[in-house]
Automatic annotation (TrEMBL):
Its EC number is 1.2.1.16. Pfam families: Aldedh. The keyword Oxidoreductase applies. It catalyses: succinate semialdehyde + NAD(+) + H2O = succinate + NADH + 2 H(+); succinate semialdehyde + NADP(+) + H2O = succinate + NADPH + 2 H(+). It comes from the Eukaryota. CDD domains: ALDH_F5_SSADH_GabD. The active site is at 270. Gene3D superfamilies: Aldehyde Dehydrogenase, Chain A, domain 1, Aldehyde Dehydrogenase, Chain A, domain 2. PANTHER family: SUCCINATE-SEMIALDEHYDE DEHYDROGENASE, MITOCHONDRIAL. This is Succinate-semialdehyde dehydrogenase. One of its GO terms (cellular component) is cytoplasm. GO terms for molecular function: succinate-semialdehyde dehydrogenase (NAD+) activity; succinate-semialdehyde dehydrogenase (NADP+) activity.
Length: 497
């Protein structure tokens, strides 16, 4: 059990140490628990239940039963509940941001930013407001006796299903609301499998949703770690589930997609990225450096849309590298609760091992170390923010997503060359570039094989945009237009008129 005093909350009742099924807070039947630690201190924050297959089936059954009534509520009713939920999130924003820092490690300023981002998925015109705008249409018929009408309904209305939600640890609050808000607005019910590293944010959000008036069974939370394979399989193969939404790595996404295919479920997947960040010789270098800092090092490099490969045109390469290294050297790495901290820890030691592997590989292949390059001493999972220059295209960092504070700089000569380098990857989530040439801006934005492009900006995430990728970065879109992912389009032909 967690000691609520250890969290330092204004309202300790937001700390929930049990899973949530059918309106009840529950423990695992066998008493199993998952330890949750603070990555900045390696200290245990508390525990949550280690649920298994039986509890998952109970959660699915509860969501299926609740769907019968929730799907028949009016869009206005759902809108009002979501707006109450949003108001409660704003009322408790300090505690919710602190919770993000405690279990994820990101600096408190970033955690507050995530909370605002998270709440915007509930409040924004794409969710709460769009709940009352799920418009149908009338299609002119070529036959005088027919009238063609299209309506939209929550997914799987006949079979009383729900939506399975599987979320990552890097945005423990925002990745819940980005999926849950659209599902609730559409009239769907949900079973959430939060990450075992950061479950408390999900549980706190469900507590507030319940206070806002979300009925029992509409939201269920299954916490698991050792049993994640069995739980994930059940969510994907259970015939009552008609929609699976997943954010995480590409290998896991492929596995879940294969399982979901057994019942032809609708699937939304946001999988791995390997974002290129391109600096052309006509760029505003100061702006490009600032963009690289926010794009590469936000969340200590642990975001799916962060820059992973930084390509700089030769004539401005030395200038850009020097200015970037100077900024990185000024970072203050430490506990996110310290107001002087600019960058926090990685989520666990396995993440450190991957960053170190990428650094060592690049150096072995001829790259030069400008700053950082190793784990920092002391408790917690800290790695020094790192800048490498002259990184060859065949280095691991240019082939794999690092998910850490490593800026790897590669030189290029021509626009055609860098487009080829940028697109030489099986994934395509986000891409960024800096240029003041209007023609180049359009050419490159259209040529990059990604779902989202940042032109002269390193920060693209917003609740109102259609968020998602192409190639092996996933299927579907969340955020803007996201409610459409959780509705079925039904055509009705009225004859005999």
């Amino acid at each position: 059990m967690a000691s609520t005093a250890a969290f330092g909350f204004k309202e300790p009742s937001l700390i929930r140490t049990q899973a949530y099924i059918d309106g009840k807070w529950v423990d695992a039947k066998d008493g199993g628990v998952i330890k949750v630690t603070n990555p900045a201190t390696a200290e245990e924050l508390g525990t949550v239940p280690e649920l298994g297959l039986d509890e998952t089936k109970q959660a699915i059954a509860a969501a299926s039963e609740a769907f019968k009534t929730w799907s028949k509520t009016t869009p206005k009713q759902r809108h009002d509940i979501l707006m109450k939920f949003y108001a409660l999130m704003q009322e408790h924003q300090d505690d919710l941001a602190r919770l993000i820092t405690l279990e994820n490690g990101k600096p408190l300023a970033e955690a507050k930013g995530e909370h605002a981002y998270s709440a915007s998925f509930i409040e924004s015109g794409r969710v709460a407001e769009e709940a009352v705008r799920t418009y149908g249409e009338v299609i002119p018929s070529p036959f005088p006796q027919l009238r063609n009408v299209v309506i939209k309904q929550p997914i799987g209305m006949v079979l009383s299903p729900h939506r399975a939600i599987l979320t990552p640890w890097n945005f423990p609050s925002a990745m819940i609301t980005r999926k849950l808000g659209a599902a609730l607005a559409a009239g769907c019910t949900a079973v959430i499998k939060p990450p075992s590293e950061t479950p408390f944010s999900a549980l706190a959000l469900v507590e507030l949703a319940t206070r806002a008036g979300v009925p029992p069974g509409v939201i269920n939370v299954v916490t698991t770690q050792a049993n994640v394979s069995a739980v994930g399989r059940e969510m994907c193969e259970n015939t009552a589930v008609k929609k699976v939404s997943f954010t995480g790595s590409t290998p896991v996404a492929k596995m879940l997609y294969g399982l979901a295919a057994s019942t032809l479920k609708k699937v939304s997947i946001e999988a791995g990225g390997n974002a290129p960040f391109i600096v052309f010789d006509d760029a505003d270098i100061d702006a490009a450096v600032a963009g690289a800092i926010v794009c590469k090092f936000r969340g200590t490099g642990q975001t799916c849309v962060c820059a992973n490969r930084i390509y700089v045109q030769s004539s401005v390469y030395a200038d850009f590298a020097s200015r970037l290294a100077e900024k990185v050297a000024a970072f203050k790495v430490g506990n996110g609760l310290d107001e002087n901290t600019t960058h926090g820890p990685l989520i666990h030691d396995r993440a450190i091992e991957k960053v170190q592997r990428h650094v060592d590989d690049a150096l072995a292949k001829g790259a030069q170390l400008i700053h950082g390059g190793k784990r920092l001493p002391g408790p917690g999972s800290f790695f020094a923010p790192t800048v490498l220059s002259d990184v060859p295209p065949d280095a691991l960092v240019n082939k794999e997503e690092t998910f850490g504070p490593l800026a790897a700089l590669t030189r290029f000569e021509t626009e055609e060359e860098v487009i080829k380098l940028a697109n030489d990857t099986p994934v395509g989530l986000a891409g960024y570039f800096y240029s003041r040439d209007v023609g180049r801006v359009w050419r490159v934005a259209e040529a990059l094989e990604v779902g989202m492009v940042g032109t002269n900006t390193g920060l693209i995430s917003q609740a109102v945009i259609p968020f998602g990728g192409v190639k092996e970065s996933g299927l579907g879109r969340e955020g803007g237009h996201g409610i459409e992912e959780y509705m079925n389009v039904k055509f009705i032909a009225f004859g005999g008129l």
